[in-house]
Structures are given as structure tokens and as C-alpha cells.
Amino acid sequence: MNLLDRLTVDMKEAMKNKEKQRLSVIRMVKSALQNEAINLKKELTEDEALTVLNRELKQRKDSLHEFEKADREDLAEKVREEVVILKAYMPEQLSDVEVAEIVKQTIQEIGASSKADMGKVMGAIMSKVKGKTDGSVVNRLVQQFLS
């Protein structure tokens, strides 16, 4: 079952169970997916759908950070719930150890030796771990291994 079908099924379930927050998040994600499909003028692949889902999750995390910084706990709590709902649709996340192993392998494959090669390494790694880890974790590990 692809992501859009899963969202539709979960949306119906959220309506039946009167889960307003979950329903709202699912509708936002479906809307973002449909907008992306319209912009690309084609049906989204799973990879493209995952990219949209990642973007939505990143937006929520950024909002959460800003709300926490501004001591708006009421808004932060709502966004935390949205993040939990969105994470349910993400693929299983890689551990830091698994990401570190991928980083080491990619650095060896590319033959990177300094921070000047960071862009090449990041591009190669992010295509391998798309949606399975946060880019900031990858960035930190790449810097650590290249220094």
C-alpha cells in the first residue's frame, strides 16, 4: 500500500474515532502530497512522497524549536503531537551506529580526504539514507570523519 492510500485509510479511521488532531495532520500531509503531484504534473513515486513527508516533518521540528525558544509551551505541545503522528508514516530510522557505518563506507568509496569533499560525500550519503535519518546527524558524522 503506498503512502497516499495509507493516509486515506488512516484519515477515514481518524474521522470515525473523532481524532481531530490526527485528522488535521493527515489532511495537511495529503494536501502537501497532492500539491507536489500537481506541481510535478505526475503521480508521485514513493521516493518523492517521502521527500514531501520529510519536508513536512522538518517544518514541524523547526516550528517546535521556535515555540520552545519563545516559551510557548501550549503551541509546542500541539506541534510535538503532530511530529509523533508524522513519524508514524516515516520509514524505520537508522541508529547512529548504522549511519556512521554508511558514512565511513561512502567516504572510502568516494575517496574523500578533507572537508573540501564534504559536498560530494553528503550528496552520496543522503541519497542512500533518504528519510531514514536526519540530515543534521549525517552532517555531524561526515564532519567528524573528515576532520
TrEMBL record:
Keywords: Coiled coil. The keyword Coiled coil applies. Residues 4-50 form a coiled coil. GO terms for molecular function: carbon-nitrogen ligase activity, with glutamine as amido-N-donor. InterPro entries: Asn/Gln_tRNA_amidoTrase-B-like (IPR003789), GatB_Yqey_C_2 (IPR023168), YqeY/Aim41 (IPR019004), YqeY/Aim41_N (IPR042184). This is GatB/YqeY domain-containing protein. It comes from Anaerobacillus isosaccharinicus.
